[in-house]
Specification:
The protein is of the alpha+beta class and 117 residues long. It has helices at 77-82, 88-99, 101-106, and strands at residues 2-6, 17-22, 35-40, 48-61, 109-116. It has a 5-stranded mixed sheet, with no helix packed on it.
């Protein structure tokens, strides 16, 4: 079973269903129906297993339209708010620190919808 890690205990993790944005994995990408272990601080001594969740949906999204691929929707403000941010700029800043600006601007991300088991 694969681990889906979080570095912050987001309020969204208290909902029955929640979303997260992740880049496609190079080894084997996340899959609809896959059961994953949700972990807070997975690479830390403070590691905490929060539970199991199933990936209910997976959609490609771009953060920017400048380098974006045609046919892939941009992340909307509603998606940003449901994901725990106050606005698109806050999410963009958070993700650019985590992943780096070039990757964020040039590669699509998976919008994963998960449901706690």
């Amino acid at each position: 079973m694969r681990i889906l890690g979080f570095s912050k205990k987001w309020t969204k993790l208290q909902n029955k269903e929640f979303t997260t944005f992740r880049f496609p994995r190079r080894d084997a990408d996340w899959a609809i129906g896959e059961v994953v272990q949700i972990v807070y601080k997975p690479r830390s001594k403070e590691r905490e297993t929060l539970g199991l969740a199933e990936i209910m949906d997976k959609e490609l999204r771009n953060m920017t339209s400048y380098w974006g691929e045609e046919g892939i929707q941009l992340v909307t403000n509603n998606e940003v708010i449901r994901d725990g941010f106050t606005n698109w700029e806050e999410m963009f800043d958070w993700l650019s620190k985590a992943y780096g600006l070039p990757r964020l601007a040039t590669e699509p991300m998976n919008k994963l919808t998960l449901r706690w088991l």
